[in-house]
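::Amino acid chain::
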Amino acid sequence: MARVIEQLIEDASQAGPDGAEQVRKTAVNNLRQLPDVHDFIDGVYRAGFVFHSESQNFFHDDDADFSVRYVQRDLGNSGNTWRLQDDQDRALQIIESEKDEHMNIEGLAGSGKTFLTSALGEILSPKTTLLVATTPFQLKALEERLPGFAGSTFAALVRNAYANAHGVSPHKLGQRYSPKFNRRWSEISAHMGFPEIKNQTPERVAQLAADLVRKFCYGKSEHFDLKLLPRKLLSLFPTVAERWALVHAAQALWEAIMRPPQAFSDLPVRSYHLMKWLDLNDGSLDAGDVTHLIFDEGHDVPPAMLRLIDSSTLTAISLGDRFQYLGTGDPGRRAQKVRPHTFQHSVRTGFNVSDLLNTVLEYHPKYEGSIFIGNPEKRTQQRRYARLDQSTLTHVATLKGKTAILSGRIWSVFSIVQRLASAGIPFRLMTPPSKLRGAIDGALKIYNGKAHLNTDVHTFNCNNWQALRKQEGVIVDSLYQAFERGFQKADLETSLSKAFSDRPQAIRVGLVEEAKNREFDNVVLTSDISYGDYKTPHTRSKIISSLYTGITRSVHTVYYQEDMIDKVVSSIKQATSKD
């Protein structure tokens, strides 16, 4: 086996440093899967895969660090000295020398994208650079890394561009352009006059039409046609006439939504509608004196927005990790003209977790051979728990450093909050309290038979508890049991009053998606992350991305339920065996 590896490196060295480095990364992670060479490969990796051509043997230098190399140099005119990884340094050199060139930095979790973003502040001018993000939370994190730089959400950027295209002031756009403006399916179907199609009620037709409009907005198609229909709808609408009827309903809804601002309409307008409209109508992103855009979490940016950016005169530097995409549809991609740069080495997560993560990532629909390489200087412990009961939570509360409990759904966050509060264990919420209140209030209205009064986004179109359970799954069963025991909104307020925002040791509680761009000493993953219909590609993708994102938030220890990872892999294999 040693001779095989020697030959591999000898061949790779002929490809030059870059080729040898890539083969080293790939070979290490593949060979480490074999138990009989595990220790041998570990030793070779730590030695940097150095090959001695004369003796035809490896040698081990304990003082050498070939896995993560650093350089120290000044950036800009600030006089500050930055300690940069090789990958970071190469990317910054390109940006410094080619300031008008677009760049997309694809960095796996913990590979130093956050640090690199801060370094960009030394190279680019705050007078001509705009920070943009998908959510206000992401924008705030970006602004904290680059103080003095102006920022905007993508929604605000396209809202302004759309208003300018129609010759109106952005603040004069009507109420329906507000993110909080909503309409029930029954109201939308009545507004549009949708008929019943193949035994599907007008309300259901409105929902399906809205889904097709959303797919249209996130896709590249310029027209509504039968290609928009997902496979699951083909059996629901077996005839061509029925399928076209649904497509025409979606097109009519799109045209009604995008009526000019001055025209009357009572339908909600979302930012992805505006992005698609600008994309189809050659809209421009007018940002005044701005010449450069910087945005993180590029995988969360809708495809239409990326096309707008790449076709504009602005130079955009994006950072992202497609494996952390937790949205609907496919993650967006920059245009081919955009220069790519990849970070694979994680500084945060230990090398010993590489096998676990690569085993999961292999089944990601967007897997293209990119392997995760952990930090060989660190060891991230894996701990399994049988149940996340009171005794487990008590143990978690004793862990040193910052600890986070991450969930896949809002209902699990509620459950954790209730148990921590009742046990008197200090905790802090990453999930906004208003978001938690809204979800529980909506569920209570459905439980009490007042679904028509519900306005919460999590439960908005569920008319009864059976519909909620069908939408959210068995995880709401414990919520139903709490309501049966008499739980009321006042009980939630009591629990929330026990959330300590000023205690460093308080356990952070929230959704996996709310932990992006953060790191913790210890991470506990709740089992609901693995819930879902594995036959649906999007669900499989979200489960894998949630596991990957959650595990890579941890520096020292990651906890997950017993054989949860094995069950996820087994379920994916079973679901895809007939694909």
Summary: The CA atoms of residues 306 and 527 lie 34 Å apart.
